[in-house]
Design goal:
MetI-like fold; 12 helices; mainly alpha; 71% helix
């Protein structure tokens, strides 16, 4: 009885899937199904600008409709006009160059300290015992809380500002470099021993390639932290720089100047991050960076 019911051409006992197959045109059932691809998808040209552009549009609409009070947040066109005036006066370029120098030198010494200590702690147990503990203690203390002490030791000049930026930026570089060295594949070390590589060859062909991904990741964090630290240190007795412009604008209630300087800070941070990511793509062509 079961064989008769299933083999009937149009019997009432036909399964539902069999009726559906009979109702489809010829060739449809054999058509291969498209597989859904996993992952973030294809990159969109200029996709990174979508978020900032949307924010600018909402800001413009809010200012044009009066939803955003100009005394709280100046309109985009007011900020743009103020920026053009400051550029014509030369004040924006001069203060921007001062801020760039402070951030550059602070990041430079932070890179030197972080990479050097990371290599020492990553290649030697004794180095790790001597270096890692004090750095972890330093990490537990906010670098900005050290500013009063640094002011007593080094004064309120440029040296204190650069040192503060270096103290904030070197920690992520150290951590990522140290972790990259400690996570080196043991097979590479065994291969280097089998090939009887010298210490110089071992550093060049094994250590540096192993530490490079972590170092570049730490550099990406360090670049961002350098601009964040710059905002703070330029509030301390600065007579030039973007932070000085913000302090002066706060005194006179110039909201548009404050927003302009913050926008410049944001542009510098985004461009610096993009530069590090570009260097990472060129230096590590074998890695697929999903963030891009």
């Amino acid at each position: 009885m079961a064989d008769i019911s299933l083999s009937g051409a149009h019997g009432a006992a036909d399964p539902g899937w069999l009726k559906l197959a009979r109702s489809q045109p010829a060739g449809v059932a054999d058509k291969p199904r498209r597989r859904r691809k996993l992952g973030p998808g294809r990159p969109i040209p200029y996709g990174a600008a979508l978020g900032p552009v949307l924010l600018l549009i909402l800001w413009s609409i809010g200012s044009a409709t009066g939803f955003i009070d100009d005394r709280i947040l100046s309109a985009p066109w007011t900020v743009a006009t103020t920026g053009l005036e400051l550029i014509q006066d030369g004040r924006l370029q001069e203060n921007l160059w001062t801020s760039f120098q402070r951030s550059f030198w602070g990041l430079f010494w932070g890179i030197i300290a972080g990479a050097t200590l990371g290599v020492i702690a990553g290649l030697s147990r004794i180095g790790e015992y001597l270096v890692d503990g004090p750095i972890q203690i330093k990490r537990a203390i906010p670098a900005l809380a050290l500013i009063p002490l640094l002011m007593l030791w080094f004064g309120i000049g440029e040296g204190m500002k650069i040192l503060t930026i270096a103290l904030i930026t070197f920690a992520p570089i150290y951590i990522q470099t140290h972790d990259g060295l400690r996570s080196t594949d043991a097979r590479f070390i065994e291969l280097a021993e089998t090939l009887d590589l010298s210490n110089t060859q071992f550093l060049r062909h094994v250590v540096l390639p192993a530490a490079l991904p972590g170092f570049l990741l730490g550099l990406r964090f360090g670049v961002t932290y350098s601009w964040l630290a710059l905002v703070v240190v330029e509030q301390v007795n600065a007579t030039s720089g973007l932070g000085y412009m913000i302090n002066l604008a706060r005194t006179y209630g110039q909201t548009e100047v404050i927003i302009l300087c913050l926008a410049v800070y944001a542009a510098l941070g985004l461009s610096s991050d993009w530069l590090v990511r570009f260097i990472t793509r060129k230096a590590l062509p074998w890695r697929k960076i999903l963030a891009d």
